[in-house]
Write a structure and sequence with these properties.
With about 450 residues, this protein is of the alpha/beta class. The chain has 3 domains: about 210 residues, Glycerol-3-phosphate (1)-acyltransferase, CATH 3.40.1130; about 100 residues, no CATH class; about 130 residues, no CATH class. About 60% of the residues lie in helices and about 10% in strands. The chain has an 8-stranded mixed β-sheet, sandwiched between helices. Helix 7 packs across helix 15. The two termini are about 30 Å apart.
Length: about 450
């Protein structure tokens, strides 16, 4: 009963927190998820506890995550784990206690029972969160759970669903994340009748799982290559996108995936093609830095921008939102700076966003409470100031994203139109990037998996 109450209270709250931290949470391939069979979701794991929160709150069918038993030792996390219906995993590396082996068998039994009840669970096959730009070696637990459930309670029709958690800047506030859902895997398909829990059967299933996850994730040998190829894909995609809100992460991922795969193949067959893409991207970005402008503003349709700026409706909304936004900055400046300071601590790269989110969940309410007590008076009571702080904070956040960028866009428009030769040079360098990308894709063509399905955008 208590767990159900915690779920009812905390899951919507965590959903809201994620919607504030990320500017967009997009899901592709949701229509691939089977409706009435037991499921095991298998996401990649590059962003610590945030991965588990995204899986629990955004994947269809409210899946129960598997989490390291050590997390239950962190007292503040216990309510969250209870709300998520998390199943503790007892790993050998976490303890030398002989009792861990028995607890591990209990974990497998709990998973079997959940699947027999036609529930969905989330298991991270990499085992631990990491900060590498590619998928790490997978543990065999997912295959053993799927095959074991079928052996003991089957036929169940268990399906393993690969999931790719793709962040454009995983630790950055107001960044984006694409949750790409792959094709469901039948763990029994192709296996001979008999002992489906044999080592050979487990290996066969894991090969399918790894291929499925790789199809919905981006994998690079280094972060430098990931940034460069990702930038090339972003620049190429933006050529057809002229206004904010037209960015579709599923389409961007498709292009990024194609370019990443083509780059990897071309390293042997046509290495100069890859180098030419890298040089074109660097040349374009150097000129952007010299001019102190952003690419996003360069490709805007500026006449439409100017119409928006001088539109009476836009200007009226600007004036209405401005005072509340200024108040939001005043009431939220201290907690914002304190939370940002957390990221400057020595934290593993894959844990930065988790640290920011959980620090913010503590720091913001504490600061709002202190401020409301200090400001309470005839104008507003304590509770009034406390409620005004988050409301005005959201207003200032939206104001910055919807209005403040207009000033940068206007500055870019005026600067480029007063330096026609620079505008022309930028256009030429951007066109070179696009041509080099097209030639690389043509030189190393291949069919790649694309996360399809109707996209569903989360709050933010």
């Amino acid at each position: 009963m208590l767990d159900r109450l915690l779920e009812w209270l905390l899951i919507p709250f965590l959903n809201l927190v994620l919607g504030v931290f990320f500017r967009r949470i997009e899901i592709s391939g949701a229509d691939r998820v089977p409706v009435d069979v037991p499921l095991i979701y298998t996401p990649n794991h590059m962003n610590s506890l945030v991965d588990g929160l995204l899986a629990r709150t955004r994947l269809p069918r409210d899946p129960r995550p598997l989490a390291s038993a050590t997390l239950w030792g962190v007292t503040p996390l216990r309510p969250l784990l209870a709300a998520a219906g998390a199943i503790p995993v007892y790993r050998r590396q976490d303890s030398t206690d002989p009792g861990y082996r028995e607890k591990n068998r209990e974990m497998f039994a709990a998973c079997y029972e959940a699947l027999a009840a036609r529930s969905a669970i989330v298991l991270f096959p990499e085992g631990e969160s990491h900060a590498y730009p590619s998928l790490q070696q997978l543990k065999t637990g997912v295959a053993r759970i799927a095959l074991g459930a079928e052996q003991r309670h089957g036929p169940l029709g268990v399906r393993i669903v690969p999931v790719g958690l793709n962040f454009d800047a995983r630790a950055k506030f107001r960044s984006r994340v694409l949750i790409a859902i792959g094709e469901p895997i039948d763990p029994l398909a192709g296996l001979p009748a008999g002992d489906v829990e044999s080592a050979q059967a487990v290996d066969a299933v894991m090969e399918k799982v790894e291929a499925g996850i790789r199809a919905v994730t981006l994998n690079y040998p280094s972060w430098e290559e990931a940034r460069t190829i990702g930038r090339a894909a972003s620049l190429y995609a933006s050529r057809e996108r002229r206004a904010p809100g037209q960015d579709n992460m599923a389409d961007e991922f498709s292009l990024h995936k194609r370019l990443a795969d083509a780059s990897e193949r071309a390293k042997q067959a046509a290495p100069l093609r890859v180098q030419r893409v890298v040089e074109a991207v660097r040349s374009y970005d150097r000129l952007l830095r010299v001019l102190s402008v952003q690419h996003e503003h360069v490709v805007q349709e500026h006449p439409r921008l100017l119409q928006a700026i001088f539109s009476f409706r836009k200007f009226s909304l600007f004036l209405i939102r401005l005072p509340l936004s200024v108040l939001g900055i005043f009431l939220n400046a201290v907690p914002f700076l304190l939370t940002r300071g957390v990221s400057r601590l020595k934290i593993r790269a894959d844990r930065e966003s988790t640290a920011k989110i959980f620090a913010g969940m503590l720091i913001y309410p504490a600061c709002w409470t202190v401020q409301s007590l200090l400001l309470a008076g005839e104008l507003l009571p304590t509770i009034g100031w406390w409620l005004l702080a988050p409301l005005s904070g959201v207003s200032s956040l939206l104001f910055r994203e919807r209005h403040a960028q207009l000033l940068d866009e206007l500055r870019t428009y005026l600067r480029l139109n007063s330096h026609a030769e620079m505008k022309q040079e930028l256009g030429q360098r951007l066109e070179r990037v696009c041509l080099e990308v097209e030639e690389l894709l043509a030189v190393a063509p291949a069919a790649t998996s694309r996360p399809e399905g109707q996209a569903a955008t989360g709050p933010g």
